[in-house]
């Protein structure tokens, strides 16, 4: 199926407690919908309090994806989300059903919409070295180190944000080239490759953002082509 033939991806986004799950379940009772969670907390098993995780009854009524994927001590990245979400969407559509992306983690949805550069993993020893440098010399020194090897990334990241500055440094240590060179070339939505691939391309994302105000629902829609 070519990119122009792919159906749009429907998204229901909003903050915790706004009622996204209730609305998604209401829709799923009337339409052939399966829910794909877009939530950085719901991927963890056991984190049920304070996350508005759908209860077992709701998950029996409607099939949910990307919930309870890993233990709380296992890192889960936006890159992994993009891969898991793409697989879930493809699986749902292959069975003739409609995926509905539901959640409140905007970073996950933005990267799923626009793509993410395919970069190799960073060895643990490089990560440990940079964490030690951060603890010892401090964030300004690490930011200066980043500016020396990747000025574009340094210009976009303020030194007060410690972990974002460490990320490009780790990848430069691994690849020996600026991370911005890879990240500026987002690829196709499905394969998430930096170069794209034949037959794939952007999909339309139809997003509805929902908030609760004085017990009344307000919603606004946005379409991204």
Structural key phrases:
single chain, 225 residues, alpha/beta, Rossmann fold, Histone, subunit A, 6-stranded mixed sheet, disordered C terminus
Quick overview of this protein structure:
The protein has helices at 20-28, 56-61, 78-94, 106-114, 124-137, 139-149, 151-156, 162-175, 179-183; strands at 9-13, 33-38, 64-65, 98-103, 205-213, 216-224. It is of the alpha/beta class.
What does this structure look like?
This protein is 40% helix and 16% strand. It is elongated. It has helices spanning 20-28, 56-61, 78-94, 106-114, 124-137, 139-149, 151-156, 162-175, 179-183; strands at residues 9-13, 33-38, 64-65, 98-103, 205-213, 216-224. The protein has 225 residues and is α/β, with parallel strands linked by helices.
Helix content: 40-55%
Biggest sheet overview: 6 strands, mixed
CATH superfamily of the largest domain: P-loop containing nucleotide triphosphate hydrolases
Can you tell me the CATH topology of the largest domain? Rossmann fold
Q: Which CATH architecture of the largest domain is right? A: 3-Layer(aba) Sandwich
Q: How far is it from the N-terminal to the C-terminal residue, by CA? A: 17 Å
The average pLDDT score comes to 75
- Provide the number of structural domains: 2
Beta content comes to 15-25%
């Amino acid at each position: 199926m070519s990119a122009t033939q792919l159906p749009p991806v429907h998204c229901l986004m909003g903050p915790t407690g706004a009622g996204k799950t209730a609305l998604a379940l209401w829709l799923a009772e009337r339409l052939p919908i399966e829910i794909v969670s877009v939530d950085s907390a719901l991927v963890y098993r056991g984190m049920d309090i304070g996350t508005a995780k759908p209860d077992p009854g709701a998950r029996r009524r409607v099939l949910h994806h990307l919930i309870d994927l890993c233990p709380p001590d296992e890192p889960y990245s936006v890159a992994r989300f993009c891969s898991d979400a793409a697989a879930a969407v493809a699986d749902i559509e292959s069975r003739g059903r409609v995926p509905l992306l539901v959640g409140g983690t905007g970073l996950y949805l933005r990267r799923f919409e626009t793509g993410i550069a395919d970069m190799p993993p960073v060895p643990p020893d490089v990560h440990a070295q940079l964490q030690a440098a951060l603890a010892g010399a401090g964030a300004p020194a690490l930011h200066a180190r980043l500016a020396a090897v990747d000025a574009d990334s340094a210009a976009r990241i303020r030194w007060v944000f410690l972990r974002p500055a460490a990320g490009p440094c780790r990848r430069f240590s691994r690849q020996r080239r600026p991370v911005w060179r890879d990240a500026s070339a987002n690829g196709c939505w499905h394969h998430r490759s930096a170069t794209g691939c034949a037959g794939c391309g952007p999909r339309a994302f139809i997003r509805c953002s929902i908030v609760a105000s004085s017990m009344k629902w307000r919603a606004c829609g946005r379409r991204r082509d």
